[in-house]
Amino acid sequence: MTRARAAVAAYGLPSDLDVQSLPVAADAFDRLLSTCAHEGLLGLLGAAVADEAIGLSESHHATLERELQRWFAHMVRIEQVALRALTALEEAGIEARVLEGIALAHTAYSAPERRIFSGADVLVRSDDHSRAAAVLERELDAERELPELGLGVDERFGEEVTLRVDGLELNLHRTFVGDALGLAVDLDDLFAPPYRFPLAGFELQALPMPQRLLHACCTAALDQRPPRLASLRDVAEIVLRERPNLVDVLLMAKRWQCEVVVARAVSTTWRELAITRVVPIVEFARGYVPSRRERLPECEL
Amino acid sequence: VIADAIWRRRADVLQRRSLDAVVLLPVEGDAPLALAGSAPEVWELLAEPRTSAALASTLADRHGVPIAEIEADVVPTIERLTEARALERFDPQTGLVG
Is the interface score ipTM higher than 0.95? Predict the structure, then answer.
């Protein structure tokens, strides 16, 4: 099943993995569907079926269709919440960027259906974080999942606050990585001139490059062990489709002290998805030698 | 549905295309709507504004089916999409929508 889900995660990329070898027997298909849902890969599985790279029985097709409709209905509701949040923040004079699922689905992927996400992620400046949370609580009836530990704690030390709007998850970030690495991220870099993209008549702002790739690498290398395959796919999409300038990536990674994170995320992505096209950042990643500090247990990835 | 009216997608609609349906939610809408049957193809074709007659003609050509048969399916689909606030009627002469 490990190879099967990796084949779905690599679908459409130049890879040694092939979805045509996927299990289509009843039990195996149910397990594959469940795994793909857990790994955020249903959109890619749907793409492979739509392209007729995988042939399904009528009943499996119907099951997948039901799951896709359920997720897509959820995702457009998430996008609706994000647009309401961004409008409220703009009216309050608070600058914001969209991160993660919404931004990646509409910028890095060839079709937004391929990138599944469960919540909205919005980034504001540290100084605006508490006020932004208050605006969303007031204007969207958003509810905090957890109360703030003390006045100003979120604004100075927090990574994000999770809010609920009509039962949907809205993460309000001031940064995207915690712990020691988070202290090295220059938060002003996150508000450099943005990458703009359209969504339902709105113009949204995402992180520019190379910040968007560094964020994807942090998620892939640090969020979960083993990393979610969808996060690895994000790294592959950005590297292969958007082709960020290697020098820009490495200069910012050095400043943010996260070269080891980039190296780990890219080399893991290429290995797990068996990607055959080697580009310069992959050569950098494979040849990267961690420093003594990066080899300390607390820095081990 | 007026045969010579030009229909187009509303700009403020969030959307996803599944295998057999299109899932739509206007930004100001209450709940997502999944439309199957001919709706996904009609929605895809209306990326460019068209009359219902032009839509029916294109679909008839694609599927090798008589226009009259297709029209009987296209008209209610346009009505459903319009009711869902996903489509609007557009007058290219005046730029007015309705």
Answer: no
